[in-house]
Amino acid sequence: NAGVMQNPRHLVRRRGQEARLRCSPMKGHSHVYWYRQLPEEGLKFMVYLQKENIIDESGMPKERFSAEFPKEGPSILRIQQVVRGDSAAYFCASSPQGALNEKLFFGSGTQLSVL
Amino acid sequence: GEDVEQSLFLSVREGDSSVINCTYTDSSSTYLYWYKQEPGAGLQLLTYIFSNMDMKQDQRLTVLLNKKDKHLSLRIADTQTGDSAIYFCAETRPSGNTPLVFGKGTRLSVIA
Questions:
Q1: Would you state the pLDDT for residue B26?
Q2: CA-atom Rg of chain A in angstroms
């Protein structure tokens, strides 16, 4: 049973370009969470999705950031017109049922570098 | 405050015990977690404790929970160089949708 798969591991973008980060949850998991880790910071919650639904996006910046988790395929975190401050590690986690007390399983992250 | 607090750095000698401390904020948190992050890697769940417990032991790891003070600690016995990593404390917050709230992490350095 493969774990949470994120790709790419490293992504380099120039200012103004778009970044697309992918996350495939563990098999059987239908709940996906995106977290961002800035240098020397802990993980900050961004968005929680269930298949085809956004449950909680309270941690997402209001502009340029969007997320989806379609019926088929991976969850995508999309950042438009990237700026240097978007440089961070982006982690995806999944859980089977989305209960608040469920353990989350994390991927290895995507390191985004904006030049 | 709103944040989960941890000291940022801890340095110990190989073979000694390490104690990593954390204070959390939500008295209704039902689960508290310790995650480990090795360089360039994701987060690995190390252990967790349910809020009606005050201690949990798992091989070299001991978790202590003081609910009154909202204080959580992780003790690693016989610390090895392979334990060098960042350790994150995290709490659930049943009052909201956010599944886990993390501290900033404690960087453990083990000196041979």
A1: 77
A2: 13
Pairing verdict, β A10-13 and A110-114 = parallel
Transcribe A98-115 into DSSP letters: --TTSPPEE---EEEEE-
- Is any Cβ of chain B less than 8 angstroms from the Cβ of A55? yes
Q: Tokens for A79?
A: 């950042």
B-chain CB neighbours of A6 within 8 Å are 42
Q: Please give, rounded to a whole number of angstroms, the shortest distance from the CA of B34 to a CA of chain A.
A: 11
Q: Within a 13 Å sphere around the CA of A47, how many CA atoms are in the beta-carbon half?
A: 20
User: Residue B30's pLDDT is what?
Assistant: 77
Mean pLDDT of B43-62: 92
- In chain A, residues with a C-beta closer than 8 Å to the C-beta of B43 are 43, 91, 93, 106
Taking only the tens place, the pLDDT of each residue in A66-101 is 999 999 999 999 999 999 999 999 999 998 877 666
